[in-house]
Specification:
Layout (H helix, E strand, L loop, with lengths): L7 H8 L28 H4 L8 H16 L3 H13 L4 H10 L2 H7 L6 H9 L3 E3 L2 E2 L12 E4 L7 H4 L1 H6 L7 E4 L4 E4 L14 H8 L2
Antiparallel strand pairs: 1-2, 1-3, 3-5, 4-5
Length: about 210
């Protein structure tokens, strides 16, 4: 399983905004972006003072890179999702975002069972969750409507999952999901609408990037 192994705070600095890749740490005083909000690299600190007009290609690239980093996906798989979204009926950009939101690791994060998508990926890869009664450790597994996601019985004895219901209760979930904290489970009721997905993502620029 290929994944990014570098410092994630550098990704936020490159995009010029918090991507909340470390969960609660990103809203605490420990967040390094609050102390170094300039781009990474030897010339990053001076780059914030230089004004330059951004080309259309640069804006499209940044939109694509930002979406990739938010969902923790590498380029090859991200491009494959774009090709799938092209074949679906409806708006390509919205189709792409709905596919990204339907990933198992993202669903675990949205249900509040993990502080961040990175933590959700770790939990899924270790086989702590089941989909429709079957143990699943595939991060990219696409959840369908009415699929049941629940914590595996053998994992509920672990300290993390014993305290999970109380921790998850403080985290809100979107309207397209349902959650049962007593059973440590959840379902996808429907595909999310555009208003229920991160408004800072610019899917139209991503479509333009791959349409060149």
């Amino acid at each position: 399983m290929a994944k990014y192994l570098g410092p994630v705070c550098k990704l936020c600095r490159r995009e010029g905004e918090k991507l909340f890749l470390k969960g609660d740490r990103c809203i605490s005083a420990k967040c390094s972006f609050d102390h170094r909000d300039y781009p990474p690299g030897p010339h990053g600190q001076g780059a914030q003072f230089r004004r330059r007009r951004e080309s259309d290609f640069a804006r499209q690239l940044r939109a694509k890179q930002k979406a990739r980093r938010v969902y923790g996906i590498l380029e090859r798989q991200f491009h494959r999702y774009y090709e799938i979204s092209l074949k679906r009926r409806g708006m390509t950009g919205l189709n792409l975002l709905q596919i990204l939101e339907s990933r198992l690791d993202n669903i675990i994060y949205r249900l509040g069972y993990a502080e961040s998508r990175a933590q959700a990926r770790l939990l899924v890869s270790h086989g702590h969750f089941m989909v429709n009664g079957r143990r699943t450790n595939t991060l990219s597994y696409l959840i369908n409507e009415d699929d049941l996601i629940q914590v595996r019985q053998g994992s509920r004895k672990r300290i993390y999952f014993k305290d999970l219901a109380g921790a998850a209760e403080t985290r809100n979930i979107p309207g397209w999901l349902s959650r049962d904290l007593q059973d440590l489970s959840g379902r996808m009721l429907r595909l999310p609408e555009r208003s229920e997905i991160d408004g800072n993502l610019q899917e139209q620029l991503i479509v333009e990037y791959y349409s060149r």
